[in-house]
Amino acid sequence: MTQRTIARIRGPKATALVQRLQWVADPLQYMDTWGKQHPDIFATQVTGNTMIFVNHPQILQELLTRDTRDFEAPGRVNQILQPLLGEQSLILLEGDRHRQQRKLLMPPFHGDRMRNYGELICDVTQKVTSRWHENEVFVARDAMQEVSLMVILQAVFGIYSGERYDLLKRSIASMLSVTNSPLSSSLLFFSFLQQDLGSWSPWGRFLRQRQQIDQLLFTEIAERRQHPDEDRTDILSLMMAARDEQGQPMRDEELRDELLTLLFAGHETTATALAWTLYWVHRQPEVYGTLMQELDSLGPDADPMAIFRLPYLTAVCQETLRIYPVGMLTFPRVAKRVTELAGYRVTTGDTLVGCIYLTHRRPDLYPEPRRFKPERFMERKFSPYEYLPFGAGARQCIGMALAQYEMKLALATILMNYQLALAEKHPVKAARRGVTLSPLGGVRMKMIGRR
């Protein structure tokens, strides 16, 4: 069988620097333009080196199920995130260390332990939204960011109130401002901008905020070690109690970096997904009507797990993550040897990513892909390579279950208690926010009244 050659983006307007600038400034236009010409697979220069975008589910399946044989999922290719997450982050680890650390971190995110967080998510959502006033316009993403940050601080960090809680809230919000826009996100993509010129400079300010967060977290960890409490159910306590195969606990630096990883991966992303969900639900009256009928069938004191299992609510959240996946790409895979991938020749060292955004926009999978239609998830079950908002394979998001749980419960809590309306006159567009996609402007909404 003749091997096929992967199409490469070329031309005077597609040099490595130009491609990288296009990718940082407007990733959607970049993906839409080249995905239209090469719907299955194409090679780019968005990182300065060749990166192959895989957009076809069969090729994706072959790539992501050969993680350990012909391809690897190295942490070193995620080095762009090191300033945010630290060297010991699960995202930057690889090989045996990655597998061992992932095994240690998995238990708190599954089974009965997840149920402990249901009431907390609902309470936090009610606390934040109780400050809304009738006819007040608010930015949905800002409100949802406060919800998700409080959930992270309480469910993951196990910090509920006090001076340290307040300091962490302020410091985290300030540090994450580095991802607010494509312009500020450039600090992550271009290392020459990472110059500490004092607290007045963007990178200097970021480093000082990160140092303050480190000090707060190390103090919290030290106090937990001095006064262990077996009854605590927060994820930090569970991580501190975990032991590896040699019976060793996680070191302070590992705990800190994993807390920052869960913060970055679970805070910004969940807030963005919730803002998008509020937008789509209120933009399409028929979706709102069907969803409210389902929610109202439960009654006012619904159990969190009963809410979580609702089929149409689940479909609404799935469709939100399909149409604008918060993460545009899977984590990169690198070819360990010359091999063939679905008939395409791949050489040693080639870097490949699954393009979640383009896969989710394939008309052969999702007819009318630009239309928000939750029913598609009730009419058909999609494979993990056709629908993969949390990635797949060895690098699948470890907090996937908690994110889905929080998304459904927060959305249901808001809709069951408030009548809202969009305050946007035009369709909301997506834009880069760090390494994710976020609604431009955050989605302005108005609180009409209580239900």
Describe this structure in words.
The protein has 19 helices and 12 strands. By secondary structure, it is α+β, with helices and mostly antiparallel strands. The chain has one domain: Orthogonal Bundle (Cytochrome p450). β6 and β7 form a beta hairpin. α13 (252-283) packs across α14. It is globular and about 60 Å long. The termini are far apart. The model has no long low-confidence stretch (mean pLDDT 86).
Compact description:
With 451 residues, the chain is of the alpha+beta class. It is built from 19 helices and twelve strands.
Please state the average pLDDT score.
86
Shape designation? globular
Indicate how many domains the architecture comprises: 1
- CATH level-4 homologous superfamily: Cytochrome P450
Biggest sheet layout: 5 strands, mixed
CATH architecture name: Orthogonal Bundle
Approximately how much beta-strand content do the residues carry?
5-15%
Q: Specify the structural class.
A: alpha+beta
CATH class: Mainly Alpha
